[in-house]
Amino acid sequence: MPEEISTLNPNKWIDNYADYLFNYAVVRVNDSDLSKDLVQETFFAGLKSAKNFQGKSTERTWLVSILKRKVIDHYRKINSNKGKAEVRMNFYADGDNEGNWIEERVPQSWDNASEKDIENEELKTQLDVCIAKLPEKYAMVFKMKTIQEFETEEICKELDISASNLWVIIHRARTQLRKCMEDNWFNN
Amino acid sequence: MFKNFFINCDEATTICDKSQYNEATLLDKVKLNFHFLKCKMCAIYSKQNTFLSSFYRYKAKSCKEIQHRLTDLDKAALKKTLESKI
Questions:
Q1: Which letter, b or e, does each residue of B38-73 get, where b requires 16 or more Cβ atoms within 10 Å of its Cβ?
Q2: Which of A11, A142, B15, B74 could form a disulfide with B28 if both were Cys (CB 3.0 to 4.6 A apart)?
Q3: Would you say residue A91 lies in a domain?
Q4: Inter-chain CB proximity B54 and A118 less than 8 Å
Q5: Does A90 touch chain B (CB under 8 A)?
């Protein structure tokens, strides 16, 4: 029996895949306008390379693979953006104190924190504010790992980064978020 | 022999972060607990980290329930642009 070959039908792309691709992009790049652009670029790139489509995968899988490349390109772009919102250092980088807490960044006790806070809507809003203050690549990796709960391996594959690179990013993001939540909520 | 068990606060908090996702090794956890014996600051970090993880999980639950969709207006505009290219 011959293998089933998929064909492309660009006239139906918007109706069939726009929402799926848009959601795929938003959960990764956390920006709705940017996601719209990425979806549009994906469709354009799909049209351009339609002749290379061999029909071995479904139309949707093929379009997702194009969008994946766009997400990696975006990550590389923000990864090379220097100086905009730099993450603050929490530990001495060298000298006798290398690796120790910098005095002003030492965690303070959160006397007012309670289990009830976990479901507090205002605290969720405060978290969004704190995430928005992170450099974009830190926010992106943190959200993929912690909010969307992707596996480490999956993120490394999708963004083409090593696991040790991922943990450095997660560590810096979490340390910065902890400090931001402390300054704006728990010790306020 | 025990030299490898001594880690600094940066390394300790990195292990602590990994363990929030259940991705720290047993050896890592031994080193971390060894570090806590002499470092109250990292012990506080760890306690707060556990609290924040529960909070992040709660946030994740509500975020994952949302399916992001394009508006009809956006789709119509996209359709128009795409049709001009076909």
A1: ebebbbbbbebbebbbebbebbeeeeeeeeeebeee
A2: B15
A3: no
A4: yes
A5: yes
